[in-house]
Here is the input.
Amino acid sequence: MDKHYKKEGKYSYFEAGEGTPIVILHGLMGGLSNFDGVAQYFPSKGYKVVIPDLPIYTQSILKTNVKSFAKYVKDFIAFKGFDKVILLGNSLGGHIALYHTKLYPEKVSGLVITGSSGLYESAMGDSYPRRGDYEYIRRKAEEVFYDPKIATPDLIDEVYATANDRIKLIKTLTIAKSAIRHNMAKDLPKMTVDTCIIWGKNDTVTPPNVAEEFDKLLPNSTLYWIDKCGHAAMMEHPQEFNGILEEWLTKKNL
Here is the structure.
């Protein structure tokens, strides 16, 4: 991924391939590497995969909210000179993608959400985060996945470091409140963009009924399930995830 990583102006991002841009938005505790499977597969299929580093912990507290992140994505798309993009988001990234699509529908030719917040999410639960309690953080990180081994020691260390960084902790809680405040239930019926919903059947953060609610409320959505899969389908089952996404993109002529 390193050789495709760029820094230009205020933006840092991964970019590979040529063709229709797929702009990918990572989640709160997620990084660009969460989408390695997508980033390696789709450039050979006629797509330009672009994954910006979202300023989740670097913007002022007043701009630490879903709406500001959606505007950041709009500015990034303009900076890259893209006319229309396919937006793909996981968890908080899905919520940002949804909110961006609500604000700037003319910029989005297709929307893909997986384990998205925007209707409901349990995040780390009511007791998050317990600073200094490594075992608690490890257990919570493992619960994100159907297969706990996906939560590598490096990933757990990263979440632990975030939970023990006072500024990041405050911003994490600010974002959690913003996600609740920016509930999308009333907006979704008015959003007509073609939407692909890919969901883990065993997601405990945004449970399966959340996917069903998204599918019910969005006028032009298709819901796909991945079995034995938690909150980050593109990490746990990259091949199946890519297969579903490619099939949907082909069907929608995107």
